[in-house]
Amino acid sequence: MKKIVLITGASRGIGAATAVRCAREGYDVALNYHRDAAAAAQVAAQVRALGAQATLLQADVADTAQVLGLFERLDAQLGPQARLTGLVNNAGIVAPRARVEEMSPERWQRVFAVNVMGTMLCAREAVRRMSRAHGGSGGAIVNLSSRAALLGSPGLYVDYAASKAAVETFTVGLAREIATEGVRVNGVRPGIIETDIHADSGMGDELAAAAAGIPMQRLGRAEEVAEAIVWLLSDAASYTTGALLDVTGGR
Ligand code: NAD
């Protein structure tokens, strides 16, 4: 049966690289995007050029109704013969660097809404479709954490770091909760990867200097994170669940 993976936040960065890598691996890909329809369409075109099917699904993953609508549209497009086999909870945001005294509750709420609630909402819908307890035939979920979950990101974005720590605990808890139901749940913990997210945090200019603090003396590439994600999705990782895999250049 054809493998189908849903990737959230797939319009750019690690999500886009994962979509292309999954297509190379023979998956059909459902690409969620939030605002950038044109960029998502370009990623879909790359997926199709590799011979895979691409479905575009607009939704804010932090919004319960929009996530339910996304999965309903996906069900309708797949039809009765095809089943979702993988979910990559990639969508994530970081707010501009700040100290805690300068952070508003609204900022914390939005960061947690996208990074934590978005991950939970999509995982919940995927489990409802993939778990053998719900009549599904199994699958795999990969959640994007961050090395920040362990480092705390002082002076930068402790809210983001705390949200990724929540993602990690959720990953381990869900993995163990459904370990006998054919669905593996793992996380990837990227270090500093060259993507546009750093422009959002105001860290863009400091990236080159940050490389000096990494044992491999360079930043990572989105494609290198995609490799880890695709392995965790695959049957090659059949005995791996509840794991957090560092992709950090040794950091
Ligand atoms: P990015 O900003 O390039 O991509 C994030 C994607 O998520 C974008 O396509 C964006 O549109 C989407 N998105 C944001 N809010 C959304 C929402 N509410 N609903 C749906 N989509 C939404 O960043 P990236 O570097 O590719 O990051 C991907 C993931 O990897 C994130 O979870 C991020 O926290 C994590 N990560 C990145 C790094 C890094 O250094 N780049 C390090 C550690 C972890």
Could you name the key traits of this structure?
single chain; 251 residues; alpha/beta; Rossmann fold; seven-stranded parallel beta sheet; 44% helix; globular; binds nicotinamide-adenine-dinucleotide; KR_dom; SDR family oxidoreductase
Give a brief description:
The chain is an alpha/beta fold and 251 residues long. The chain has 9 helices and 7 strands.
Any chance you could write out the topology, listing elements then pairs?
Layout: E1 4-7, H1 13-24, E2 28-33, H2 37-49, E3 54-58, H3 64-78, E4 86-89, H4 105-130, E5 139-144, H5 148-151, H6 158-177, E6 183-190, H7 197-201, H8 207-210, H9 222-233, E7 244-247
Parallel strand pairs: 1-2, 1-4, 2-3, 4-5, 5-6, 6-7
Helix pairs in contact: 1-2, 1-9, 3-4, 4-6
The chain binds nicotinamide-adenine-dinucleotide.
